[in-house]
Design goal:
Blueprint (H helix, E strand, L loop, with lengths): L5 E2 L4 E8 L5 H15 L16 H16 L2 H15 L6 H24 L6 H92 L3 E8 L3 E2 L1 H8 L7 H5 L1
Antiparallel strand pairs: 1-4, 2-3
Helix pairs in contact: 1-5, 2-5, 3-5, 4-5
Length: 254
C-alpha cells in the first residue's frame, strides 16, 4: 500500500501593507484630534454694525425737499402772483410794479405842477387835469406792455430760484453720501477682519492636513509572502489505501 499524503501548496498569499513614514506618524493623532475639535466649533455671528446709517447731511437734505414740497417756495409763489396779476391786468398785485408806477406818477405830478406854476403855458386847470390823466394812462399802458414783455424773464428767474432748494438738497445729499461711503468702508473692513480671524484656525488645520497628505506620498510598502493552505489529495490517499480496488471510492467520495 502506497503512503498517503497531502498535495504540495498550489499558490501563495501576498499581503501589501502601507506603512506611515516615520516623519508623518507623530502628527496623525494630533491632527485628527484638532479636526474633531474644530468640527464642534459653534457659529459666531458678527455683532457689529453692518450698514452705515444716513448722515445728518442726508437728514437736512430730506428736510429741505420735504419742506419745499409741502409749503412751496417764496420765489415761485411771487412768480405765480406776478403771472396771475399780469394775465388779469391787475399789475398792482405786484409790489415792485406798484412802486415803479407810483414813482413815475409822482414825476408826472411834479411836471404838471411845474407847468401850472409857469402860467405861460396857456393850459387851464381842466386842461392840466386832462393832460395829467392822459399821462398816467399812457404810463400805465406803457408799463403794462413792458411788464408783459418781462414776464418770460421773470418766470424763468422764479423757476430758477425755485430749483435752488432742490439743488442745495442734492449737494447736501452728495456730502452725506461721501461720509456714509467712508463709514461703510470701515464697517466692511471690520467684517472682513472678523471673518479672517474666525477662519484662521481652519486654514492652519488645512495647512497641516495638506502637509500630512504630501508626506504620505513618500510612504513605503511592505509585501509579505506566505504559503497557501494545505490541500490533501484525495485520489492519492485512496490509491495508497487500495480502496479503489475494493469499489469503495464512490463510498468515500459521496
Amino acid at each position: 500500500m502506497g503512503s498517503s499524503g497531502g498535495g504540495s501548496p498550489s499558490n501563495t498569499t501576498q499581503t501589501t501593507v502601507t506603512e506611515l513614514p516615520k516623519e508623518v506618524a507623530p502628527y496623525i493623532g494630533p491632527s485628527m484630534e484638532e479636526s474633531e475639535r474644530l468640527s464642534r466649533t459653534p457659529f459666531s455671528e458678527y455683532s457689529g454694525e453692518r450698514i452705515s446709517p444716513l448722515t445728518p447731511y442726508h437728514g437736512a437734505g430730506l428736510d429741505m425737499v420735504a419742506g419745499r414740497s409741502l409749503y412751496g417756495d417764496p420765489a415761485v409763489e411771487a412768480g405765480r402772483r406776478t403771472l396771475t396779476g399780469a394775465l388779469s391786468g391787475d399789475y398792482f398785485n405786484d409790489p415792485a410794479y406798484a412802486a415803479a408806477f407810483n414813482r413815475n406818477a409822482d414825476l408826472i405830478a411834479q411836471r404838471i405842477g411845474a407847468m401850472a406854476g409857469q402860467g405861460s403855458s396857456g393850459l387851464t386847470n381842466t386842461g392840466l387835469q386832462e393832460q395829467h390823466r392822459d399821462m398816467l394812462t399812457n404810463l400805465g399802458t406803457e408799463m403794462a406792455y413792458r411788464e408783459r414783455g418781462m414776464l418770460p424773464r421773470h418766470l424763468q428767474s422764479a423757476l430758477a430760484y425755485g430749483q435752488e432748494p432742490y439743488q442745495a438738497a442734492q449737494r447736501l445729499m452728495g456730502a452725506g453720501d461721501i461720509v456714509r461711503s467712508f463709514d461703510q468702508d470701515r464697517i466692511n473692513e471690520a467684517m472682513r477682519a472678523f471673518s479672517a480671524q474666525q477662519q484662521w484656525p481652519f486654514q492652519m488645520a488645512d495647512v497641516m492636513r495638506n502637509a500630512i497628505r504630501a508626506g504620505m506620498g513618500g510612504g513605503g510598502t511592505v509585501t509579505q509572502t506566505s504559503p497557501g493552505y494545505y490541500e490533501p489529495n484525495q485520489t492519492a490517499n485512496l490509491l495508497g489505501g487500495g480502496l479503489l480496488g475494493y469499489g469503495l471510492y464512490d463510498h468515500f467520495t459521496r
